[in-house]
Specification:
Blueprint: E1 2-3, E2 21-25, E3 29-33, E4 38-44, E5 47-52, E6 57-60, H1 64-67, E7 76-80, E8 83-86, E9 90-96, E10 99-104, E11 109-113, H2 117-127
Antiparallel strand pairs: 1-2, 2-3, 4-5, 4-8, 5-6, 7-8, 9-10, 10-11
Length: 133
């Protein structure tokens, strides 16, 4: 269970000041996690995998539709219908026949849908010109 008040965080709030995600974990109870440490979210049916920079993966009983509006838009980009990534951890982009791939600094590779490829490329190119070959 996550409590997050998007009304308290204005659109002008910088990502470092963004309120932490408060997640309920069965083993340890309620804990706060920095949004900046979240590398990507991946949907599987009505659950979401939250993947953190320290290598932790958490399966949460919420959809991406629940989490997406609660994340800072200046940090997170929707790559696919089942994946949202933190742009801080994007190393490079690669174009393929089926859309594209995003290579992360963690060594993972995530697909980008054909439909979203141009938007993702444009959003990443604005802030990170080194990504474009």
């Amino acid at each position: 269970m996550t409590y997050f008040s998007s009304a308290s965080a204005s659109a002008r709030t910088s990502p470092t000041e963004w309120p932490p995600l408060k997640l309920y974990l069965r083993e340890t109870g309620r804990q706060s996690f920095s949004v900046g440490d979240l590398v990507y979210l991946q949907a599987v049916a009505n659950y979401s995998w939250l993947n953190w920079v320290d290598g932790r993966r958490m399966l949460m009983p919420r959809t991406l539709k629940y989490y997406s509006p609660k994340l800072p838009t200046e940090l997170f980009i929707r790559l696919h219908r089942n994946c949202v990534v933190n742009r801080r951890y994007v190393d490079r982009l690669e174009r393929t026949d089926t859309g594209g791939l995003v290579h992360l600094s963690t060594g993972e590779v995530l697909p980008v849908s054909r439909r979203r490829w141009s938007t993702v490329r444009r959003q990443l190119a604005n802030n990170m010109p080194h990504l474009m070959n």
